[in-house]
Amino acid sequence: MGVYQTKAQVHAFERGFQAYGKGKSQSDNPYPREADYFTLWKQGFQEARQQDSDTEHRA
What we know:
Elements: H1 7-21, H2 36-58
C-alpha cells in the first residue's frame, strides 16, 4: 500500500487483514462487490494470508 490512501481505505485494508487473523473466510468481505472498499478489504485479507504462508515456509 505505497500509494496515498484515505483513512477509510486504510481501515478497509486493515479490516481484511484482521479478518484473516480471526479465521474468517474471504467470502466474509462485508463490502459490496462494486465498492472500492471491497477490493481493499480483499487485498488486506490476501496480504495477511501471504504473510502467514511465508512464515510457515520459513519454519
